[in-house]
């Protein structure tokens, strides 16, 4: 089972879209995929038609009280999605209180990693959507994954949010024996705008080893897919956006193969 987290300390950069699109592409070729929504806003949860304000059980339960996580604590949270090979552990808005509660709560950083250890035979891939703030939820997302995807909107100021994220990764890496590697994904690219062109150039200059060759263009079909609750590749497999994510996925799988050698 491979675990990838998607994070950036900036909102609206395409994190949830990246999770859903890559999940769809993996499921399409037969992989069993688990999605975990660690964002209290619950956009990923809403995407598949669940209401994060109404849900009784959510990933929040893993942080409530007992630090031990039993198999049943995890399996009872699993929800179906619009795709037969994709399941979801949802978020609930109650999670917003967690950051305050968890202050000083030692050892809460591995709750998600512990949960995943119980389902490792059930899935091939796990994708974790994380909130745009550094706190106990993001720490869990970073601790549970083997590789991190960082979507970055190609616009002025994009680099600021990214720099914060990279500082966070460096901090996390001081505590990890195996360093967390990451891939930067340029999103909302529009080659007609100077902002897109120059920020992409800057990303290549500053992060030559981490930047993905696949660039995600602006594509209105992503929003249409989310309205219908379908993964983008099911809604329209020939769209430019889906093609770009497919290219990204190929390079991620290739990288994973190299690392395994
Ligand atoms: N490449 C794209 N082209 C056009 N629209 C996009 C693209 N990627 C995402 N969107 C749309 O932009 C909005 C924000 O995207 P998304 O929810 O994926 O970002 P996010 O980083 O998860 O945001 P948040 O921080 O609020 O969770 C959504 O309405 C989504 O459908
Ligand atoms: Mg999101």
Automatic annotation (TrEMBL):
Q: Pfam family example for this protein?
A: AAA_31
Concerning InterPro entries, the annotation shows: AAA_dom, DNA_Partitioning_ATPase, P-loop_NTPase
Q: Residue ranges of the AAA domain?
A: 2-181
Member of which family? To B.subtilis soj.
The protein's name is ParA family protein
Organism for this UniProt entry:
Neptuniibacter caesariensis
């Amino acid at each position: 089972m491979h675990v990838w987290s998607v994070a950036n300390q900036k909102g609206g950069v395409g994190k949830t879209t990246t999770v859903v699109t890559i999940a769809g592409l993996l499921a399409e070729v037969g992989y069993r995929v688990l999605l975990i929504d660690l964002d209290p806003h619950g956009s990923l949860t809403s995407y598949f038609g669940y209401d994060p304000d109404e849900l009784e059980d959510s990933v929040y339960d893993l942080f409530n009280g007992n630090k031990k996580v039993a198999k049943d604590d995890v399996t009872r949270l699993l929800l179906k999605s619009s795709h037969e090979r994709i399941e979801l552990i949802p978020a609930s808005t109650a999670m917003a209180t967690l950051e305050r509660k968890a202050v000083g709560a030692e050892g809460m950083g591995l709750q998600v990693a512990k949960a995943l250890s119980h389902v490792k035979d059930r899935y091939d891939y796990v994708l974790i959507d994380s909130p745009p703030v550094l706190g106990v939820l993001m720490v869990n997302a970073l601790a549970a994954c083997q590789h991190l995807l960082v979507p970055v909107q190609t616009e002025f100021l994009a680099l600021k949010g990214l720099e914060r994220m990279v500082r966070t990764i460096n901090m996390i890496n001081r505590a990890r024996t195996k360093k967390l590697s990451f891939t930067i994904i340029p999103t909302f690219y529009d080659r007609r705008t100077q902002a897109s062109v120059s920020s992409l150039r800057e990303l290549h200059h500053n992060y030559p080893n981490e930047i993905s060759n696949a660039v995600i263009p602006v594509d209105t079909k992503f929003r249409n897919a989310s309205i219908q609750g379908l993964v983008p590749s099911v809604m329209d497999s020939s769209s430019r956006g889906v093609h770009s994510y497919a290219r990204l996925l190929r390079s991620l799988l290739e990288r994973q193969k190299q690392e395994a050698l």
